[in-house]
Amino acid sequence: MRKKILAAGMCLLLWLAGCSGGAQTEQTEQTQQAPAAASSQQEEVEPVQENRANGPYTVNTLISDVINDPVFGEYGRLIFPVNTGYYSGDTLGDLSLTWYNNIDPNKTVEIANYLKSHAQAGDTVFYDIYTEEEKAEDPAKENTGLFLFKGEPGAKFAVCNAGGGFAYVGAMQDSFPHALELSKKGYNAFALIYRPGAQTACEDLARAISFIFEHAEELEVDTECYSLWGGSAGARMAAWLGSYGPAAFGGDSLPQPGAVIMQYTGHSDYTENDPPTFACVGESDGIANWRVMQQRIEALSSLGIPTEFHHYPGLRHGFGLGTGTAAGGWLDEAVAFWEARM
Which of 175, 213, 168 is nearest to 192 (CA)? Predict the structure, then answer.
């Protein structure tokens, strides 16, 4: 099984290059676009309010001021993409991320204020997943970790994985919003910052899950029926870890997740033992063809695996929470799907 997983990781670039029924997948579409194209893909969202989150940051706050805020210490630089070539905009209100659409500036402000307020209160909002020795041996591991959006003590946990074409981590649109909303529902939600690259990303996710299990008492989480969430490249990560387990990528031998929640990806690999899977995508997604996602979900269903699939008219890639769009409320449906497995 270990050789099979390593082979799967080695073949990832081939899969990303377009072997999903002729549809363009994340990597093929993205490598044809320059990072500077991020701003041109931003669709309209609801009007920006000056300070919707009732905190010190507003839509006019400089991104650099958040990154360098002393309250965050060294991990402030991980709130936004470390590879700065994949985002543009000077303030929280005009943030754009390459390959993403429907970014809600009000949600960006809310997330930044959430992190600041909890850090000021003395709560731990960021956890290293690698030791100092491991980071010294591999400096790329300096750019990893888990942001925690705390739910009820003893509640189940979720790990949210942002996309970014395995070139960067688009957490502010693709994992932080999800984790924040899950925490509001009482769940303990983690957003993973990982090393770019399919294999290293899966290794970091495996390490993160192992870290959470190992520190479950300290983190006050229930490890039964945890869930893995992801969009685009992050959805591939969630699917691979769901299919093969953390041990296949260097983590501990642990139970598979109770549910995998996937957004907009052309991922087609699966096994007969995959966990229950929820998936959603926009019908106008030029990166992840919705019919490719549908085919995978139908294949899982034919094996008796619980599934749920939604596709939304007019939506493009990377819509995140989908606030104010045809996808609005999808996260509630995904949570209900997860809860049905508990």
Answer: 175
HSE, side-chain direction, 13 A CA sphere, residue 112: 33
CA 208 – CA 119 distance, rounded (Å):
21
Confidence of residue 55 (pLDDT cuts 50, 70, 90): confident
What's the length of the chain?
342
Name the nearest CA neighbour of 316 among 18, 10, 38, 21: 38
Pick from 252, 269, 235, 260: nearest CA to 334: 260
Let me know: does 84 contact 67? Beta carbons within 8 Å: no
> 169-209 pLDDT, tens per residue?
999 999 999 999 999 999 999 999 999 999 999 999 999 99
Which residues are 103's β-sheet partners?
none
In the block, tokens 């999800």 appear at: 178
What pTM value is reported for the model?
0.87
Average of pLDDT values for 232-249?
Answer: 98
Cα dihedral: 9, 13, 19, 25 (round 10): 110
Buried b (16+ CB within 10 A) or exposed e, 263-302: bbbbbbbbeeebbbbbbbbbeebebbbbebbeebbeebee
DSSP state, residue 20? B
Cα–Cα distance between 92 and 116 in angstroms, integer? 14
